[in-house]
Amino acid sequence: MKMQRLFKGNPWYEVVWLYDREFEGRQFPLVYLANGQPGYVITQYIYDLMVRNFSFSMLELHVRSLCHLYAFTCARYGFRFLTETESANLVANFLDAKMYGTDEHCTRRATDYTWMHDLGLHWKPLIFSQRAKGSTIRDYVDAITEFDKWQSVHHEVTQLNPKEKYFMNAWERFRDFKRRSQWDMNLHLHKSRSHSFEKYQDHIREKLDKFEDGRKNINSPKKFPPNRIVELVDSAATNVRDKLLLLIMLGGSLRRSEPLHLFRSDVEGMDIMGQAKIRLADPETGMVEWLDENGIKQSGTRVKYFKDYWEKVNDDIPLTHPLRHLAPRTKLDRRNQGLHSGFKSMTLSAGEQGYIAGGVDTRDYDVHYLWWCDPRIGAYWYELFKQYENNYLLKNPFTGETVKLRHPWLFIIIEPGDNYGMPLSITAVKALWRRLKKRLGITYRLGWHSLRHYFGYYCSSVLKLPIEQVQILMHHGFSTSTEIYYHLNQANVRQAITTAYLQSTDCNNFTPELISEKSSIPKFPVHWTNDQYKLWIIHLNQLKSSVEILPTALQKSLKEEGNE
């Protein structure tokens, strides 16, 4: 049994993570309180969360929230029983301490807040973080309230932060029905719903509204600036791995954590246009193929792949090493060297069976591939991938030694040191984005997800694809999700309005003079391509006699290539 300490030098609690066979090797957080004894109630609650299959991130959030609340209670009131008034205000005071900081970090000097100046918690204020100010505070409240409800049911104690139940009026029920009609598969059960909702008590709700007030008025752009895409990839990103991450997100619409689930074997060459063929699959239930110890080809889910293949390959690694017990990254612990990575489900379209080297693809299950919004981006990605494979995946450029990776993932640590070749962590991806923004001088709020918004913008305003097609390209289950990313260019909207007006007034002859014929297809650098893409363009130019049968977007792309 391995024990891993997470909190050191804390006088109020200690958390020890234990590997437990009952939960298939997951780590169980055992909480020790200030008296040195295990916390019975919180351990019982944690067990219930794990039985309910809470994710690692949610489990860690609940443990942290409750331990911080316990530390706050001990710091302010000691170990005595609280009065009724103190209990009623405990959560609200805890939120103040989190929001404004404690001890030397406290930002409040009024006499009402003097109790925060000598708690010994040394919490830094969240008020200076626009992102954390609202979301982190609400996460704390939600986690504490969840425990509060559980404890009142199982131990019959009075809730610290009870919610008030409200029933919808006729207008609210109608609005709820209209909203659900766009996505709810159980809409036919709408009349049988309780039509009620819960609210926090007034003093808690007022604090949450106050903390989130600064976030509601932020009007930062959602998509990454299109005119800075080339600068982001070619200038801000300083190595080939980072360029691959950027291109696959802006050109392939992947979310921040999704590239971390890709296997090296998921890159299955390139297609006729030179675009990289990158296989997409659920990190747990998605199919994969491998060769067993006898060289016989096997296939199965990715969970089975780790159990049947990597468990045998890595059986010589010490039991305490993070790569000893490999599994899909959704199942790995966040504290296990940063191997955990979340995954939001994808809606994959019909399988794209195709040809592979040596014959027809004989896989008897659907295989899904990433969609590129522009073939030049996909071609450039594959060209960079070959460099990445030769320079980093197959050998260590700092030692010159051949690399034998003990895991299947595509993106690895390429910085010199003992961790070379380890899977890239989500923490490293977040830090990379901060460095990229700093190099570009971007100070406003803009995250990795802005690259996914760029994909939606490109499909809607450059390729002018209908939202139903963009929904498929972005792997959305409902078009309502795609609407958030469907950014129409203002110039295109004005042009459409002008064209419609001229047509309605029988002034079609003036359309060419008033409407610019300039293509909206962006001009990427010449090196954003590869030899296969160039051959494809040559082949298309040979078919110009039948160019009228080609899609409009492709005609524009051909015209741009010809002008260059």
TrEMBL record:
Annotated ranges, domain Tyr recombinase: 219-498
Keyword flag Signal: no
Lineage: superkingdom: Bacteria
GO MF annotation terms: DNA binding
InterPro entries: DNA_brk_join_enz, Integrase-like_cat_sf, Integrase_catalytic
Gene Ontology BP term (one): DNA recombination
Record keywords, A-Z: DNA recombination
Protein name: Phage integrase family protein
